[in-house]
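To: structure desk
From: M.T.
Subject: fold request, one chain
Message: Could you run this one when you get a chance? Sequence is below, nothing fancy, just the single chain.
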Amino acid sequence: MTDVVQLEAIHKIYDSGEIPVHAVRGVTLTIRGGEFVAIMGASGSGKSTLMNLLGCLDRPSKGRYLLGGTDVSGLDRNQLADLRNQKLGFVFQGFNLLSRTTARENVELPMLYGRRHYSSREIHERALRSLDIVGLSNRADHFPSQLSGGQQQRVAIARALINEPQILLADEPTGNLDSKTSVEIMGVFQKLNEQGITIVMVTHELDIARYCRRNLIMRDGRLVSDVQVTDRLVATVEMQRLLAAEAEAKLTD
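Reply: Done. Structure tokens follow.
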């Protein structure tokens, strides 16, 4: 597999007041196509800043970032916006769905804001395909208020997939969900990864990180650990365990 992310001695320094804040300090990192990576760390460790840099939402103060072979450091704002739209898909903790539009219309949004022009039919068909990937095509005409939290997050994942990005970036995607729904969403991510999609996920939960294949740990802006996950959780097995425990609890009530 080819390298989709190459960070070379990346620094991010914020000049807030008299003392500069070194949010990321000299991170060198390579992520290959098809990996499923979790970025972990305590609050203030630099994991969210690193995710913003990976997503081209912020620029490094020093160092070089290659995304799919493209050096993003010299791109202007419009070029960065095009790159985000074409090569990156974003999933956030808060879903960020428009309340007055249907699931399908929410999924269509990235295609409407890109420079390429698509026919209404093509946009409609691709949105339905994305919803089908996450098992939600039968809810295409439902509004967010008519969907559960897990279903709303599936819509957000479908929206991130519609432009067929090189990387799916997920920032605490299970943070607003209960344990059972979190397992369901991690099952969706695992299925996507098995199909070859590269996923980078920020999480502070060790159990969620164990669904991934590789764990990165940040501390004080530095990458202090980079390990392959050997004791990996499989969402389908974990869901079976949760359902069995739920059934047993009902019998004992």
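Reply (cont.): The longest strand covers residues 3-14. Let me know if you need anything else for the meeting.
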